[in-house]
UniProtKB/TrEMBL annotation:
The keyword Nuclease applies. Residues 11-171 form the Putative restriction endonuclease domain. Transmembrane segments: none annotated. This is Uma2 family endonuclease. SUPFAM superfamilies: Restriction endonuclease-like (SSF52980). It holds the Pfam family Uma2. InterPro entries: Nuclease_put_TT1808 (IPR012296), Restrct_endonuc-II-like (IPR011335), Uma2 (IPR008538). It comes from the Bacteria. One of its GO terms (molecular function) is endonuclease activity. Keywords: Endonuclease, Hydrolase, Nuclease.
Length: 192
């Protein structure tokens, strides 16, 4: 895609009228629409949110990220930024202040969360990407981003089953996953 095409797509994306109950993201120049989240999804996001003390962390839900070199404006389910850093207003959060992004997988987001977003977040040098998957009842912790563009990835990957503690040592938090629910009647996949 040329720079002109990317600018047009970004402009179109920013002016798009989205129906209620639909989530829209710009991922590498593609506009991606998804159904609104399930209650299981929202309960998981809330459980993660509650484990990060407000006095230390800004726990931002569905915050747009400014990843323009990737032609992307993803909207993770949860963004963690140290309190006192980042802009005080505006729609976009710059990657250099983000400590962790969290995506909770839905039946329509498996490929995006495990594939393109993994690459986008690594290319943006986001230090921690946590995928919480209520389809297969596990969390995938990704750290140590490397590479650029489509070839970017995380060097380190740990998988924790629901019920196990996810060790987030750089953030000073051991994440309790015992409250995480699962999505009923959804066909399992083979990711990560």
């Amino acid at each position: 895609m040329t720079a002109v095409d990317e600018r047009r797509m970004t402009e179109l994306f920013e002016n798009l009228e989205v129906p209620e109950g639909v989530k829209v993201e710009l991922l590498r120049g593609n506009i991606v629409m998804m159904a609104g989240p399930d209650v299981v999804h929202n309960d998981i996001v809330e459980a993660v949110h509650d484990q990060f003390p407000r006095k230390n962390w800004r726990r931002l839900h569905t915050q747009d990220l400014a990843l323009h070199e990737e032609s992307s404006e993803p909207q993770p389910d949860l963004v963690l930024v140290e309190r006192g850093t980042g802009p005080d207003s505006g729609r976009m959060m710059p990657p250099e202040v983000i400590k962790m992004v969290v995506e909770v997988v839905s039946k329509t987001s498996v490929d995006h969360d495990y594939g393109v977003k993994r690459s986008i977040y690594a290319a943006a040098r986001l230090p921690i990407y946590l995928i919480i998957d209520p389809i297969v009842a596990h969390c995938v912790l990704l750290t140590d981003p490397t590479g650029t563009g489509d070839g970017a990835d995380y060097r380190s990957q740990w998988i924790y089953k629901f019920g196990e503690t996810v060790r987030l040592q750089p953030l000073g938090v051991d994440l309790d996953t015992t409250e995480f629910g699962t999505l009923p009647n959804v066909r399992p996949h083979r990711r990560p």
